[in-house]
UniProtKB/TrEMBL annotation:
The lineage of its organism: Bacteria, Deltaproteobacteria, Bradymonadales, Lujinxingiaceae, Lujinxingia. One of its GO terms (molecular function) is acireductone dioxygenase [iron(II)-requiring] activity. Keywords: Amino-acid biosynthesis, Dioxygenase, Iron, Metal-binding, Methionine biosynthesis, Nickel, Oxidoreductase. Pfam families: ARD. Its cofactor is Fe(2+). GO terms for biological process: methionine biosynthetic process. The keyword Metal-binding applies. Its EC number is 1.13.11.54. This is acireductone dioxygenase (Fe(2+)-requiring). It is an enzyme of class 1 (oxidoreductase).
Amino acid sequence: MEAQSEQERILKVFADEIAALKERGGYQSADVIALTPETPNLDALLAKFDKEHEHTEDEVRFVVDGRGVFTIHGEDDKVFDVEVHPGDLLVVPQGTWHWFDLCEDKTITCIRVFESKDGWVAHYRA
């Protein structure tokens, strides 16, 4: 219950920014993901993110707390890392192969914004 109320508080604090993102990008929904070393089944949860995948919609993240690294396959098959910190907004365009890892402290809180109501759906590279 406490985690849910913290997520609701974060969505309320950033409501204006979320509304602007939705209007500008045509996004439909938002949620909060909060990961810490105490998160139950953290390794299993991270296993979904740290394998190369893509999405049929943009992956939009606003970092509220903590940090992590998105590794992205760019043009000409170049691979690069983007370390995100509080206050960063990252948009990984649809169809872009990437993966995500937490930094050493294994802590991040992000607002996730989605085009569909289905939320986070990954398509993994075979």
